[in-house]
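Quick one - first record:
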Amino acid sequence: MSNFVINGLLQSRNPLLTFRRFRGKINIQRPRPPHYERARVLEVIKPYYKKPDFSAPCIDAEQAKEMKGKLDNPYETIIAREARNWFEHSDLVALVHVNSIKQEDMFKAQVALHRHNVSVKVYGKSIMRKAVKDTRFEAILPLFEAKTAIIFSPEVQKIKQVLNVLKKTPQLVLMGGIIEGRLLNKNEFMAYATMPDLTTVRAQFAAVLDNVGGKIVGDLQCHQSQLVNLLDAYSKIESQTSVPSTGDGSVSVQQADS
């Protein structure tokens, strides 16, 4: 009984599928027209394309560009305001081109700069256009055609530390910078790093002015000092020459040894 149930009732049978080709030969070049109902549906859903004008692509592209310019992204406006604030309150700004670099190496460079109170920011071209347009920093816009990182520091004295970190990271290429509101190229930026700080320069300038003043006073007193020295020497010579008198009224002259 159990064998009957297993073999007869519980046994599953897979259907047999047989694929047969269409009985007639299919003509690809001149196919048979579809059924009437299907032909009606195909005629209704047939797409209709308007023939474009010759200058339509240029006009559409210009209109799309104008519409994109009119659209204001609030998020980009906030980031652009932040970027402008960084430019306004940073005495040292370095513009660095970013080549292909691992995120781990980029993070190490950011940490090394952060230890010296230096920040690294990366902004897109559209954000930078909003940030520096109609400002004194507008000349840096061509540098953002490719990926560019910006290094900000509130202290100009950090320029040597910035150059040391960039030297250890060859993927970051220095293109120029802004120091105290003045745009410098790469050579000027590196030459500025070799200059002493402002306190040392002021001390050197004060020493130069002091030396010049002392030289002027010495030149003005030169003739008087020379005259005094000559008169002093002449008085010493006269003192060495004496004219003693004798008792009978004769005068004897003694010459001093020369």
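second record:
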Amino acid sequence: MIDCIFCKIINRELPASIIHEDDQVIAFMDIQPVNPGHILVVPKVHREFIAELDEDLTSRMFNVAAKINLAIRKSDIRSEGINYFLADGEAAGQEVFHTHLHIFPRFRNDGFGLRFNENYKSLPEREELDKICGTIRSLLE
């Protein structure tokens, strides 16, 4: 993709602080970090949504993320926990339309968080959960 910032990083048209690279994925520092140590794991093939990746590539992204998680925990980077975040589509908060997995260290009162609506605490009826479950399960490949 000619205008994709991640494709430009992969092709070395833009600079990046690269943590890991292999034939399938690249991982580099986020230039707008939630906290120090915020890293992106990006497939080298341009795909907008994670469902467009094959299972092996999706697995590779998460395997690399797990190794980076361990490295962060071993480091002196402030981290009481680690978040993985993957926004899949604009409504989910995706801003760069090339699949990417965020890994970022977390600590108490770091200022980051998810905001839930007022209905979050209300529990749906089991029948509703079963209906949604059945719909999704029937479409699994």
